[in-house]
């Protein structure tokens, strides 16, 4: 640290001497030239935040205890799938099954007799089957289904039917948008459920397709991908939790729940073995979506949105309640983490990611430079998940379904052991510790019914996490290597970032910030590009450009509440002006110190000033120093005029 400070002091002194009495080449102004004093970089904020592991048994370490065959004997102590959902006991306390005294259930699935349970699966039939622990949460849970099924649209009815009867893996691929057809072809994925049959109200139709497709060596082009999607289903059964919690389906709680008529033949005739919590469809859809998003992070947010949509269709169908679906999300995420984070599966993950991209690039005629854009090329007319804002709103709504926030608020979010693996391909330029910080700083607030589990699965917001940090603590150092392509070369963080930390951007890739950011520790750009696409993109601290390019594309200009400093050398400021007043300009509340480097003026699509136009591109509380070179796209001559507070450019033909 001391060595770096000495180097910066020597550099600052050298620049000050070089600029003493010097004006900018080609500039004109009446300001008195004075020695240039280079401010120090924003102060170090200390070590970046590290997120500790929760002090409870991790699902990732104990997933093998969650076996379907053990369902009748599963308890909080013996089954990880039951334990991860333990907060449901704050809503509903089920009957306890009693194993014959002194007899231990063996692990091989051959069980002794169980004393007959009095649970019938039919509430309010006069048989005690459990205790409602929170009448508020329970009433809200069932009432939500009553209202959702009453308001069901014809389009939702079709979607709900398809999502019930079709293979969940097939349904989730709709989140791939422009890549859906190519994926299904490569996976050799088929379904027999393509519409609602005219007699579906009386005839049960089962999918005779192959759900996720053909895996293994028999599918040389895509078998590794299919295998990985199937892999996340290991140790993922919802049956032990269903048998333990014994919470009835919503239509058994209230006759006002309108089950989709086409799904009446699918209703179980044995309520005592047909628990509603958690939803199996939801759990499978979530873990499939997570696996596909891992393989194709270019569609990460669209896929996880589709996973949660399938869960909502279970409510709209009248087959499950919000808490059933939320429980499915928790268990689905936990199952995906356990399998993806297992070191034994590292080679399988790598093979699947490589194979998916190679095969889909070949089938879509794209390459590593164009594939990402193609994956996002759909429109709302041909891709249900093309609208980012709608996806974000729907995902957030489906995390809680408006269930009451009755617990303690303001508790920092825990992050499950291994959960950082969920962002491994989406944010490959981050470390595992940084990905854990992203998950923590984008998590849901505490206090929501069911979601305050001890490991933190309930509060994970994967959609928000894909948009980067939610807050900075300490020095957040980002190094991107453009030569590696994909998200190493370019990524966008769209969250509103708070905190007292400092952002340090290095490497050769480009990071774009679009949020209404408020972090206070400052920003230091050392290498690559940092793109400010919103007025408050760089927070409330000082901005220090010691290397690389700062690109300003904000529609209302970039506004800094502190100082702006640009050192000499290869540093560059690129202002992308547009037709909107102030678009692409830089406004600095404090001192803007320009110790050299270049200024490039580019123009947003469809805009170009006329020859002779004069535009103020930088305004500051105090403007000191000069750029070595100033250029403007499409103009052979730009005449700069520096004043004590502004830099104005005259664009000459």
From TrEMBL:
Residues 224-340 form the Phosphatidic acid phosphatase type 2/haloperoxidase domain. InterPro entries: Acid_Pase_classA_bac, Autotrns_rpt, PAP2/HPO, PAP2/HPO_sf. Keywords: Signal. SUPFAM superfamilies: Acid phosphatase/Vanadium-dependent haloperoxidase (SSF48317). Residues 1-27 form the signal peptide. This is Phospholipid phosphatase. Pfam families: PAP2, PATR. CDD domains: PAP2_acid_phosphatase. NCBIfam families: autotrns_rpt. It comes from Undibacterium squillarum. Coiled coil: none annotated.
